[in-house]
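request received
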Amino acid sequence: MSWERPVQEAAKDQHCVPPRIGSLLLEFFVPVRLREPLLGDLEEEFLLKIQHDRRMGRAYRWYWGQVLKSACLFIWMQRGTAMAFFLSVLFFLFVLTAALVTAEFGLWLLSPPVLLALVPTSLILGIGATSYQAARTAFRLSFSESDEYSPAQISLAARFLHVTGNQFLLVGGVTFFLGVILVSIGFSQNPELLNGGVRYARYGMALLPLFYGMIFKCLFYSAEQKITWKYGPAAE
Amino acid sequence: MKQTGKNSSLGEFEHIVLLTLIRLGDQAYGMSVRSKINQLIKRDISIGAIYTTLDRLEDKGYVKSRLGEATARRGGRAKKYFSVTASGRRVLKEVRANLEVLWEGVQLSAPLAAGNGR
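response:
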């Protein structure tokens, strides 16, 4: 069988390397855990094809065919992530625009309704990076106990909590910076507000989204630790 | 820990890959699985499809993997060997038993009876 041919024969063709651009394309789309074996297999078969019929063109065409088919497959698999990312950015921009249009410059962004921008955006990004099933498992295991999940499902649930917690921090940080910019713009348009303690109070309030983000990060971190400790490999 | 009901199903291609892994024994890795399937049933599957299926089967607990040697002809990249777990073998037996029950008495070449088998 072809993959059992001796290594020394392949060694003659070591100077033949697969198209670098094709490999880079696959590296970009293939998940990290599959990258090394998949690219290694492709390179091995590419060399074997050159050995078999000594036609470089055919081997290159075959390699590119594999690259394109596999890349399309991985892009299709990640469509959920891409869509979730797109939706969350859209939602975030919508809330920001609504804040700018309906309220005094920046002030709306600093009040508790900023949670509307923070929570759904972070949750959708977290689900996009893992899966809806992982989110359900994570919430279920955080509030109750269950032994009906496989180690892989538990690991994915813990990953959801980890990623979503980080998203809360990131989105909170971005909103904080936007808040500072908006408050500064607001002051430049209404210089009379610069008097007294209003300036410090508003800049202080700009910290709120970051503060909320940190609270959520703490909660998600605790839940992640609970799941990892209780159901992770060390617990078995 | 048991699998959830939803994850215990086995698709057609997953079925093919599991059987191929058993045939290949301890020499089962992405490329050998691809070649074996091509050799046995003449289906030219992309290496990406093989790995996504193996990855999914591993998530379901039907397959386990181990990293093998890295060689120069693979650009210094390690192989990933796959083998079927006890749970994978059990689900294969179940699928086979179900299919045998379903196929019993079915003759595809026979003309349709009047009334379409009513």
